[in-house]
Design brief:
The complex is a heterodimer of chains A (about 280) and B (about 375). Chain A is an alpha+beta fold and about 280 residues long. Helix content of chain A is about 30%, strand content about 10%. Chain B is of the alpha/beta class. The chains are: A alpha+beta (about 280), B alpha/beta (about 375). The interface of A and B includes residues 225, 226 and 238 of A.
Chain lengths: ~280, ~375
Amino acid sequence: MHRYQVALLLAAGGLVSSAGMAIAPRVLNAQQPVAHHPVPATKNGNVVVMLCDGKTSLEIKGLKPGHTMTHDQATAVARQLMQKWQRAHPGELWQMAQEEGTQMRPTTTEQGNPSPNLPSAPNQPPSGEAPNPVPHPANPVQEQVQGVPVHRQAQPQQQGDTYASFNQRDFRVWQAETQKFVEYGKRVFHSDKLLGGTIGVSCDMCHPDAANTHPETYPKYQVQLQRVALLRDMIEWCIENPVKGATMSPNDPRLRALEAYILAQRKGVPLNYGKH
Amino acid sequence: MAVRHKSVETKYMEQRDAVLRGLRWLDRRSFLKAAAAAAGAVMARGLMPPHSFQLIEIANAATSKDFGTVGHQGSAPFRIAYISDSHLYERTLNQRFIRAIVRAVEDVNALDPQPDFVLYGGDLAQLGTRQQLDLGRQILAELKPPVKMMVGEHDWFLDLGDAWQEMFGPPNYSFDWKGVHFVVLMSVHEKDFWTARHMTPMERMRTVAGLDNPIQSRFEVGEEERKWLAADLAKVPHTTPLVVFSHSPLYKYYRDWNFWTEDAEQVQALLQPFSQVTVIHGHTHQMLFNRIGNINFYGMLSTAWPWPYAPQGLPPLTIQMNRADPFDQLDGCGDGQFMMRADGLVDTIYALWDRNPVSVPAGYLLSGGKSDRPPAPQFASY
């Protein structure tokens, strides 16, 4: 059970904040296998569908594993799941996909009489640099939404949701974890031993600072592979060929970390799949 | 009999080889024919053209109009071949880099006319061990012309030059040949970053071997050797053509990868008084040329692997080579020649393997890029 709790903590920020900052980075270690969210068992063995929050689930009456739903049924299930989630999170802003011709607008408008300064609000950054600067009456934030400048001033913040309520310390822990994973990827990238290479060759010999790995251009067709390749396909190919190592399983922490390092080196470069 | 299956890679390489075999030294008409055939073959398979099938038109170096003109210095034209940056491991570990340097040796031995001598541009070894250097020495011994050796950081930082100097002599020296003064520098000194960190010799070597390892110092010729250079050049009239061989570029291209010489300006100042100066350097593993003041610079290709172009600092006169094809181990690698002209300047030929050679006439750099422009790449780096 303990393992699942950890996974839920990641998916649902609400628990993180209520649990305070008890999460040691070791627990979040990104090199561990990816956790699974088990769905509750049902009496009749019906299929149960889980939302991405890892908590909200719905039993589909009459649908047994291995059978499929029609598009309409599936749409109905999605709607029910979202309704269930919204009931559990009253006052939450959730923007559904924009339907043609309709204006996108928040499902909730005014929030009663929110206090801008909740005592012990977990998402108030204690001090220093906030991950996403929270607009403050004294510091209106000039933002752009799809190219349109939006002037936000002293707006009350939405409260009570789970996904967005992490504080600055949570954020720092997560950043540090991500950085550790990237650093591990950097070590693998620079080490013929960790790569399992057999001829003394590592990636950095030809790609200093991961130059010319162009992760932003994937997926793209690779003629020599005769198919559309993902970044990791190309990484695997490079492990097998210039480095002369054995291909890695998709869950191999080294492969995942390599991908993380390569992507991290191109931070800020626009995605441009298919570019050659 | 069992059907022999060929892998996708093998089939692809065979097709490509067939196209490339037909490519060397084509005139314009047959070039267009070959290019169309290659494009047709690719399109017939419903594929996008891979980089390696991109055929570009390249001036044939042998017909370069600059070569052989009589200049005011009256030195006799001659050729120098180069092989550089082979990064050899022990024979038991890595055959690939051995095959590459052996190919370069075969290239040079097949040159007709033969060069007067061959420059080895440094980084013969990958981690500076005696076995690696000795393996390289044996391979280079197969060269028919005489060889001039230069040291690179991969040869040096295991034992700070002991084995290399034992095998090849002093790392900096000068000589005169057919009216040209040649200087070979040891330009990869680094300030001591290892003692304070209690590094073993191999840790020091591996640190320097990591291009993007920020712990190491920047390359420099150093004060002592600059004094030696000043004294050496003091004996030479400024009208004598001067060619300087250096492993590091002798200018500042990209600091983070040590495509860089910390005291470049001081060294350049010693060379500027000469009327005809060429600097030829290793280390950067790419087609690279530059002109600063009076000095023409050319970077050499590696036999082992090409480096990407750095994200900043590329000299404006450099015309990039097409990005290398990762599916062809030798693409973007090669060797080359320097054609010493009668006027004391140098035309450079980049003999890129599995591609047509690219010729960079001195006139291109002299004119600031206005004339004799080498062909542009179709796949520049980004």
